[in-house]
TrEMBL record:
Residues 209-247 are annotated as: Disordered. This is tRNA (guanine-N(1)-)-methyltransferase. Specifically methylates guanosine-37 in various tRNAs. Pfam families: tRNA_m1G_MT. One of its GO terms (molecular function) is tRNA (guanine(37)-N1)-methyltransferase activity. GO terms for biological process: methylation. S-adenosyl-L-methionine binds at G114, I134, G135, D136, Y137, V138, L139.
Amino acid sequence: MSWNATVLTLFPGMFPGPLGTSLAGRAMDRGLWSLEARDIREAATDRHRTVDDTPFGGGAGMVLRPDVVDAAIAAAVPEGDQRPLVFLTPRGVPLRQSLVRQLAAGPGVVALCGRYEGVDQRVVEARGMIEVSIGDYVLSGGELGAMVLLDACVRLIPGVMGAAESAEEESFSSNLLEYPHYTRPAEWRGLRVPEVLLSGHHAEVARWRRERSEAVTRERRPDLLTHSPNQDQGRAGAPLYPADSPA
Ligand code: SAM
């Protein structure tokens, strides 16, 4: 059974974009996951195919209408579909590897991409969407956010990464940033690779890597050391999937 992604967007032509190349693209070709980009505008009912309107309470910009977004979801997502609905928004919970792992372990995801000022909050809540942000900056639309989310999930789908690309030791795998990497030549511009990595002593190498991971995490991201996966829920209630294991 493959992992299925549906993206609701005003710009379906942006997909698959980078998701059609490299690891994700090869996995798609092998049928390990699928991607469908649906045009929200197809759910508009008036002559001008209007999808947005001015915000109640005043202010700049336009807001995507709840009736149009709801109709777009109804048209794209079959009744009883178990996939979580994710709304990409700077107001959302930060996207973290623990949430990525939960999403990758499920049947797939339906991603809603906002544009303009965003989406009417009533449809976000009525549809039980998980509100997710990819970082503390404002993009012009949710499409790049959806691509980030999907790329992060797809590489964790069983069979997508080979042994050579294992996710076991990479950054965030145990709330730590990864240790630094080195390859040949052992000396470059007078800079030697740390001797322990040339020693062939596996236990020493593992200890050195662990220490470097802890040091860089303390220095750059001390918040990770106290992070709980429970902070990753974008809506009230239980984890996405009952069988979730903590990060
Ligand atoms: N008015 C919104 C705010 O201040 O939070 C920003 C709207 S932004 C111009 C338009 C759309 O881009 C958003 O609805 C969202 O879908 C997407 N977007 C922008 N920044 C994002 C981020 N950091 N993470 C996820 N989606 C983002």
